[in-house]
C-alpha cells in the first residue's frame, strides 16, 4: 500500500511527491534530518528530536520553516494516516531549491527550505533484538558530526564494508579511539561501569544516548563519559549501541573478538528494558 508523505505543506501519496532537481539537499547534501521512533502509535522523545533539529538548523544558518507545534501535528497525522503502531518518522529539511546550482547559499528571503516527512512501518521494532557484530574502520567523516546532516555517504560505505566482512555494522575510529557507530552511539561495559565517549563535535549527540544515560543514573548504574580503544572494547564484559531506531542493541563481536562468550550481556538487556518502559511513559 502506498504511503502518505508530507512535502512542503501537502499530504500526498508517495508516488505523487516531488522535489526540484535544484534542491540543495540533492545537489550539496545541504540538509538536516531527524528520525523519531513510534511505539504504541506514539512518538518517542519528540521534544528531544525537535530540539536537536533546531540546533542543527541554527548551526547551518538555515531558516526554521515550520513551527514546533506544526511539526508535531505533521508527525501525528502521518502516524495516524499511515496506521503506524511501531515504526519511524523520518524528517528532512534542506536549504531549498534556488532554481540553479551555486555553492553560495541562496538568499533566505527568496528560497524557502524544503520540508519532507515520511513514515516507515516496522512491526516488531520493540521486541526485535538482533545482537550485532561490528568491524572497526577509520573515521574519515567531516569535523561537525554533532550536526545531523544528510551527508551519509561514508557511513553507508562503512556499513557496506561491515557487510562485506560478514558483520552488521562498523565502529568508527579516530586517533585510536572509537567515535561512534555508523548510525548509533557506542558503549562498553567493564566491571558494571558503562563507558561511552563524551559529547563534542566528534559525535552526534544521540537523543537515545541522553535518555539512556539519564535512566542509568536513576537506576544507580555507574557511567563514565570518555573515549575508548577497540582493544579496550574487545576486553570489555559487554558492549552495545543506542539509536532512536534500535533503542539499546547488544554488540557481541568486535573485529572478530567475542564479548561475553558471544551472547548479549545483562547491562544492555536491563538498559533496553528500562529505556522502553520509561520512554513509553512519556511518549506523545
Ligand atoms: N550517531 C550517529 C552518527 C547517528 O547517525 C545516530 C542516529 N541517527 C546516532 C548516533 C544516534 O542518535 P539518536 O539516538 O538520536 O538516534
Can you describe this structure?
By secondary structure, the chain is α+β, with helices and mostly antiparallel strands. It folds into two domains: 4-121, D-amino Acid Aminotransferase, Chain A, domain 1 (2-Layer Sandwich), CATH 3.30.470.10; 132-282, D-amino Acid Aminotransferase, subunit A, domain 2 (D-amino Acid Aminotransferase, Chain A, domain 2, Alpha-Beta Barrel). Helices cover 27% and strands 29% of the residues. The protein has seven helices and 15 strands. The strands form two sheets. Strands 7, 8, 9, 10, 11, 12, 13, 14 and 15 form a nine-stranded mixed sheet that branches. α5 crosses α7. The longest helix has 16 residues, at 266-281. The radius of gyration is 19 Å and the shape is globular. It starts with a strand and ends with a helix. The model has no long low-confidence stretch (mean pLDDT 97). Bound molecules: 4'-deoxy-4'-aminopyridoxal-5'-phosphate (PMP). 4'-deoxy-4'-aminopyridoxal-5'-phosphate (PMP) binds at residues 35, 180, 183-185, 204, 206-209, 242-244. 4'-deoxy-4'-aminopyridoxal-5'-phosphate binds next to α5 and β13.
Amino acid at each position: 500500500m502506498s504511503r502518505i508523505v508530507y512535502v512542503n505543506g501537502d499530504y500526498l501519496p508517495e508516488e505523487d511527491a516531488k522535489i526540484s532537481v535544484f534542491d540543495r539537499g540533492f545537489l550539496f547534501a545541504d540538509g538536516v534530518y531527524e528520525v523519531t521512533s513510534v511505539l504504541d502509535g506514539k512518538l518517542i522523545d519528540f521534544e528531544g528530536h525537535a530540539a536537536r533539529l533546531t540546533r542543527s538548523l541554527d548551526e547551518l544558518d538555515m531558516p526554521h520553516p515550520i513551527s514546533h507545534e506544526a511539526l508535531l501535528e505533521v508527525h501525528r497525522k502521518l502516524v495516524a494516516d499511515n496506521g503506524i503502531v511501531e515504526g519511524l518518522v523520518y524528517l528532512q529539511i534542506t536549504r531549498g531549491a534556488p532554481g540553479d546550482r551555486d555553492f553560495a547559499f541562496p538568499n533566505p528571503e527568496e528560497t524557502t527550505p524544503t520540508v519532507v516527512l515520511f513514515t516507515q512501518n516496522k512491526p516488531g521494532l520493540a521486541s526485535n533484538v538482533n545482537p550485532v557484530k561490528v568491524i572497526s574502520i577509520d573515521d574519515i567523516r567531516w569535523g561537525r558530526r554533532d550536526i545531523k546532516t544528510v551527508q551519509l555517504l561514508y557511513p553507508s560505505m562503512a556499513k557496506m564494508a561491515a557487510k562485506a566482512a560478514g558483520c552488521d555494522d562498523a565502529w568508527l575510529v579516530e586517533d585510536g579511539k572509537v567515535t561512534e557507530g555508523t548510525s548509533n552511539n557506542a558503549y562498553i561495559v567493564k566491571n558494571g561501569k558503562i563507558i561511552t565517549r563524551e559529547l563534542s563535535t566528534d559525535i552526534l549527540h544521540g537523543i537515545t544516548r541522553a535518555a539512556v544515560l539519564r535512566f542509568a543514573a536513576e537506576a544507580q548504574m555507574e557511567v563514565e563519559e570518555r573515549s575508548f580503544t577497540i582493544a579496550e572494547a574487545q576486553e570489555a564484559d559487554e558492549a552495545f549501541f543506542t539509536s532512536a531506531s534500535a533503542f539499546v542493541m547488544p554488540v557481541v563481536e568486535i573485529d572478530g573478538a567475542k564479548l561475553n562468550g558471544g551472547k548479549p550481556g545483562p547491562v544492555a538487556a536491563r538498559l533496553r528494558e528500562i529505556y522502553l518502559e520509561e520512554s513509553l511513559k512519556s511518549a506523545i
